[in-house]
Amino acid sequence: MPSADEIVPKARISQSLLQECAELVDVPDRDLPPKETNKLWAIDRKNFGECRRDKSALNRSVKALAK
After folding, report:
1. Does the structure show a pLDDT above 60 at 35?
2. What is the three-class DSSP state of 10?
3. Distance between alpha carbon 49 and the CA centroid of its chain, in Å?
4. What CA–CA distance (Å, rounded) separates 43 from 26?
């Protein structure tokens, strides 16, 4: 009789989903010109969006495995 390990497929979760999210951008303690403000904001939004998508995918994977 086959073991449970042979019957139940192994979960495959991408390592990129298990990585920590990027740090927030360090904002200098000075007045920032609009161009620099926009650049820092864009970096934060990109990092947050990627992290949110990854964590959402990880969440869906875990929920599917828990069924």
Report:
1. yes
2. coil
3. 8
4. 11
21: nearest Cα among 45, 44, 51 = 51
CA terminus-to-terminus distance, the chain: 24
Contacts 24+ apart (CB under 8 A), 60-67: 61/11, 61/13, 61/17, 65/11
Structure-token pair, residue 62: 């875990």
Two tokens at 5? 């390990």
pLDDT confidence bin for 6, thresholds 50/70/90: low
Q: Exposed, middle or buried, 6 (CB in 10 Å: 0-12/13-18/19+)?
A: exposed
